[in-house]
Design brief:
The complex is a heterodimer of chains A (103) and B (164). Chain A is mainly α and 103 residues long. Chain A contains 3 helices and no strands. In chain A, α1 packs antiparallel against α2 and α2 runs antiparallel to α3. The radius of gyration of chain A is 18 Å and the shape is elongated. Chain B has 164 residues and is mainly α. Helix content of chain B is 74%, strand content 0%. The chains are: A mainly alpha (103), B mainly alpha (164). Chains A and B meet through α1, α2 and α3 of A and α1, α2, α3, α4 and α5 of B.
Chain lengths: 103, 164
C-alpha cells in the first residue's frame, strides 16, 4: 500500500514543473517557445496555490490562480503581437539575434 | 486527499508532456504537448476540489490561449529547421544547472514542509463559493484585472496593426 498523497507530493510536483519550465526558458532560443515555457512556469505556481488552498481549507489561493490566469492571458496577447511584429520586420525570431534595442 | 495511483499517473503525464514542450523540434508539437500538460493539470485540480479553477483552466488556457498560439505558429509558418536551440553549450549548462538548483531547493522545502496539524475544512471550490469571495473581498483586484485585460487588448492591436 502506497502512502497517501500529502501536500508535500503536490509541492514537489510543482517544483519539478517549475524546473522544467525554467530550463525551457533558458535553453530555447525561439521567442514563441520561450513564451510557451513561461506558461509552464505559471502553471507550476498555479498548482502550488491550489495545493495550499486545499491543505489550508481557504479559497483565497484559488482566487489567486484566477488572477494569474488573467495576467497570463494579457501577457500572451501582447507577447504574440510582438512575435508577429518581429517576424514582419526581418523575420528573425531567434532571441540571440534580436538586438535592435541595443545601442 | 487523492488516490495515489491517480496522482502518480497524472503527475507522470504532466512531467512527460512538459518535457515534451521544451524538447519538441517543431513549435506545433510543443503547443500540442502543452495542451496535454494543461488538461492533466486540470484533472489534478478536480481531484483537489478546485472545480472552478479546473473549468477555467480548460476554457481559458487550453481553449483560448493555446488556440492563439496555434494561430500564430501556423500564420508564421515555422519550418522545423527554423526552431533555434541554444547553440552555446554554456547556455545549456547554465540552464540545466539552474533547473537542478530549483529542484534541489523544492525537494528540501517539500521534505521539511509539515501538513497543518489541524487540517482546514474541505471547501469545494465551486463557482458559487469562489464567486462569493471574488465579488466581496477581492472586488477591487477584480476590477483592476479587467483594466489589465483592456490594456492588453489595446496593446495587441497597436502592435500588430500594420498602420494606425
Amino acid at each position: 500500500m502506497t502512502p497517501p498523497i500529502t501536500i508535500n507530493h503536490l509541492i514537489a510536483l510543482s517544483g519539478v514543473l517549475f524546473a522544467i519550465g525554467l530550463v525551457g526558458v533558458v535553453t530555447r532560443r525561439n521567442v514563441l517557445l520561450i513564451l510557451l515555457s513561461l506558461e509552464i512556469l505559471l502553471s507550476a505556481a498555479n498548482l502550488a496555490f491550489v495545493a495550499f488552498s486545499r491543505s489550508l481549507g481557504d479559497l483565497s489561493g484559488q482566487i489567486m490562480v484566477f488572477f494569474v490566469m488573467i495576467v497570463a492571458a494579457a501577457e500572451v496577447t501582447v507577447g504574440l503581437a510582438i512575435t508577429v511584429l518581429l517576424s514582419r520586420h526581418g523575420g528573425k525570431l531567434n532571441a540571440d539575434e534580436l538586438k535592435s534595442l541595443k545601442w | 486527499m487523492i488516490h495515489p495511483v491517480l496522482f502518480y499517473v497524472l503527475s507522470g503525464l504532466i512531467v512527460a508532456s512538459a518535457v515534451g514542450v521544451i524538447l519538441a523540434r517543431h513549435p506545433l508539437y510543443a503547443v500540442l504537448s502543452l495542451v496535454v500538460t494543461l488538461f492533466s493539470l486540470s484533472a489534478l485540480f478536480i481531484c483537489l476540489h478546485a472545480f472552478f479553477v479546473a473549468a477555467i483552466q480548460v476554457l481559458i488556457y487550453a481553449g483560448a490561449v493555446l488556440v492563439l498560439f496555434i494561430f500564430v505558429v501556423m500564420l508564421l509558418d515555422m519550418a522545423p529547421e527554423v526552431v533555434f536551440r541554444a547553440k552555446s553549450w554554456t547556455m545549456i549548462s547554465v540552464g540545466t544547472a539552474l533547473g537542478f538548483l530549483i529542484l534541489w531547493q523544492t525537494a528540501a522545502v517539500s521534505l521539511r514542509l509539515q501538513a497543518p496539524s489541524a487540517p482546514g475544512p474541505v471547501i469545494d471550490g465551486t463557482t458559487a463559493a469562489v464567486g462569493r469571495i471574488l465579488f466581496t473581498a477581492y472586488a477591487l483586484p477584480f476590477e483592476a484585472a479587467s483594466l489589465l485585460l483592456l490594456v492588453g487588448i489595446i496593446g495587441a492591436i497597436v502592435l500588430a496593426k500594420k498602420q494606425l
